[in-house]
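Let us work through a complete example step by step.
Step 1: write down the sequence.
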Amino acid sequence: MKLGEKQVLTVVKKVDFGVYLGSDEERVLLPKKQVPEGIEPGDPVEVFLYKDSSDRLIATTSEPKLTLGSLAVLEVVDVGRVGAFLDWGLEKDLLLPFREQTVKVEKGDRCLVSLYIDKSGRLCATMKVYALLSTDSPYRKDDPVKGTVYEISREYGVFVAVDNRYSALIPRREVYGKMYIGQEVEARVAAVKADGKLDLSVRGKIPEQMDADAQKVMERIEREGGSLPFTDKADPERIKAELGMSKAAFKRAVGRLLKQKKIEIREDQGKICKLRDRQ
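Step 2: predict the structure and record it as C-alpha cells.
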C-alpha cells in the first residue's frame, strides 16, 4: 500500500462502517460514505491513501488535488501553531509546515507545492519545489507561456513554474512592478538555456512593446496634468519605480512619441510635456 498515491486495491471484507481493501495481511478501511454502490468482496477499487486526523491510514475515492510526485497550486485555508493548512480536496486539510515555507503565507494565499512524507510518516506539503521542476519543456524562444511564481530572489529574479511543471526564471533585470508568491503570470520565452531551463520576459518583443510603452508614458503624462516631471535622462531606478520599465525602453517610448509629435522635451525645466500644452 502506497501512502500519498492513487492505486487499485481489492475489497477483502464488508463491514457496517465501510469496506476493507488490500489483503488478509495488510488492509485499509474505505469509509462507508466512500464505498461505490454494489461493491462486493473481490472487486477492485481505485483509491487514494492518506492519514486521518488520528494518523490512521485511510482510503478515499475522492480525487485529491495533489499526489506524491506532482505539483499543484493550493489555497491556504487556515494558519495554526505548526504551519499553514491547505485545501487539497479531501476531508482533512494538508499541513504546510513553517519550515517548508519559502515565504510566510496567510489565509487566502495560493502557493505552488509538492507532497512529501515527513519523518513521522505523515503527508505534508512543501513550497521548496525547485528540484522537482522539469527542464524538458516543449517551448522555444518567443513562445508565449503561463506559469506560477514560486520563489523570489533579490539576486537572481523571480522563479516561475511554467505550466506548474517546467523550470523558468524572470531575470532580475526583467522584473518590473511588484510580484508575489502564487501569482499567475503570462510571459514570453526570452531564451532556452543549455540546461533546458527557460528565461522569461513579461515584456513583449521590442517593436510591439514600444507601442505599449509609448501609450503607457502618454497615459502617465495625461494623469500628471500634461507633463512628466522627469526626462529620459533621469536615473534608471527612478524610471523603473515610476513607470515599471527600463531606461532603454523609456527612451524608445519617448522617441516614438517625439516622432509622432505628441510630446516635447523641455530640458531647461527637466520635464516632458504634451505638445498642445506648449505655453
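Step 3: interpret the result. DSSP finds three helices and 18 strands in the chain.
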